[in-house]
C-alpha cells in the first residue's frame, strides 16, 4: 500500500496550542502547549491572554511536533487548521500560521471544524469509525451532542448547552465550594469522599415539557444556582458545608443528565456507536456512567486517551486526513475564522 499523505494539524481555538502530525488514522506526533496556568487567577479563559500565548507557543510547538514525528516541514503533504468554532482572536493565530506555512511550502490548506475534529481524534485511538456515530463533547468551552454520518462531510448538531458548558459548571461550582481552578479535577477528587445521594440537585431540561422542546439540549445554570443556594443556606444556618457531599451530588447531577441524553440520542436515532470526548470526559464518574448506560443499551462506547480527548492538533490533522482521503478540494486561502462555525460545515 502506498504511504498515506502526511497531514499537519494546527489547533488554537481556546487555550491549547496544538500541533499534530498524522498519516491516515496513524498518530505520529501530538504536541500541545497550554496557557491554562495563565488563566487560573481569573477563574476562566481570558481571550486576549490566550491569543498572546498561542502566538508565543506556535513556533516551538510546531518544532516539537516535527521532532516527535522525526520529519521536517518539507515532508508535509497538506495542512489542516481549526477554522472555528472558538475564540476569534485565538483562532486567528492558528489560521494565520497555517496560511503562512501553506504558502511557504506550496501545500494545500484545509480549514476544518473543531467539533468534528474531536470525533475524528477517536480514529487515532481505535481505527476508522463506522458511521453513523453520536458524539458527546464535553469541555470547558462546549457541551454538545452531535450525529456524524460521514466524518469528512456530514455532521449535525442534535443538542447543546443553552448556557454554561459542562466544564464551566465544574469550574464555577468549584469556586463556590472553595476548590481551585480548573475545578473539574478538584471536584472529582473531593467527590470521591462524598455521598452523591446526600443532596438531590436538579437535572436541567429533563421535565416532560423541556424534553419536548429541548430533547438533547443541556442547561447547567439552574444547577449552579441550586448549589449556590444550598451552600448559602448551610452557611446562614451556621452549618459547616460538607464539601465532599456537595461535590459528589453536583458531579452526579452532571453525569446523569449528560449520559441520559446522549444514550437517548443513540437509541432514538438508531445509532450503535457513541464517542465521548472533551476535557470533562476525563471525569471518572462521567466515564463510568456512560460506559454503564451504553452497555445496558447495547451501544459501543469509543473514547480516545485523555491527550486526544482534550483540545489538540492531532485531532485536526486526523480530520484533515479524512478530508484529503476523500479528495475534497482545499479551502481557498482567503477563508476567515468563524467563532460560531456551525457543525454542518466540516470543511470551510
Ligand atoms: O477540553 P478542555 O481541556 O479544554 C477547554 O475546554 O478549554 O476542558 C477543560 C475543562 C475544564 O472546565 C475542567 O474543569 C474540565 O475540563 N475537567 C474536568 C475534569 N478534568 C478537566 N471536569 C470534570 N472532571 C474532571 N476530572
Ligand atoms: Zn474542544
UniProtKB/TrEMBL annotation:
* Pfam families tied to this protein: TsaD
Q: Name one GO biological process term.
A: tRNA threonylcarbamoyladenosine modification
State the InterPro entries in the record: ATPase_NBD (IPR043129), Gcp-like_dom (IPR000905), KAE1/TsaD (IPR017861), Peptidase_M22_CS (IPR017860), TsaD (IPR022450)
| UniProt-listed Enzyme Commission number(s) | 2.3.1.234
GO CC: one term? Answer: cytoplasm
Cofactor comment text: Binds 1 Fe(2+) ion per subunit.
Q: Which organism is it from?
A: Phytoactinopolyspora mesophila
Top EC class per UniProt? transferase
Task: Tell me what this protein is called.
Answer: tRNA N6-adenosine threonylcarbamoyltransferase
* Residues that, per the record, bind substrate: 137-141, 171, 184, 283
Q: Which family does it belong to?
A: Belongs to the KAE1 / TsaD family.
Q: Which domain of life is it from?
A: Bacteria
Q: Which key words are in the record?
A: Acyltransferase, Cytoplasm, Iron, Metal-binding, Transferase, tRNA processing
Q: Where in the cell is it found?
A: Cytoplasm
May I ask which residue range the UniProt record assigns to the signal sequence? none
**Molecular function terms, GO-annotated:** iron ion binding; tRNA N(6)-L-threonylcarbamoyladenine synthase activity
Write down the PANTHER family for this protein, in alphabetical order: TRNA N6-ADENOSINE THREONYLCARBAMOYLTRANSFERASE (PTHR11735), TRNA N6-ADENOSINE THREONYLCARBAMOYLTRANSFERASE, MITOCHONDRIAL (PTHR11735:SF6)
Gene3D superfamilies attached here? 3.30.420.40
- Binding positions for Fe cation per the UniProt entry: 114, 118, 311
- The question of whether Metal-binding is a record keyword is answered with yes
Entry keyword Transcription: no
Q: What does this protein do?
A: Required for the formation of a threonylcarbamoyl group on adenosine at position 37 (t(6)A37) in tRNAs that read codons beginning with adenine. Is involved in the transfer of the threonylcarbamoyl moiety of threonylcarbamoyl-AMP (TC-AMP) to the N6 group of A37, together with TsaE and TsaB. TsaD likely plays a direct catalytic role in this reaction.
The protein's annotated catalytic reaction(s) are: L-threonylcarbamoyladenylate + adenosine(37) in tRNA = N(6)-L-threonylcarbamoyladenosine(37) in tRNA + AMP + H(+)
All copies of the Gcp-like domain together span 27-317
| Required cofactor names | Fe(2+)
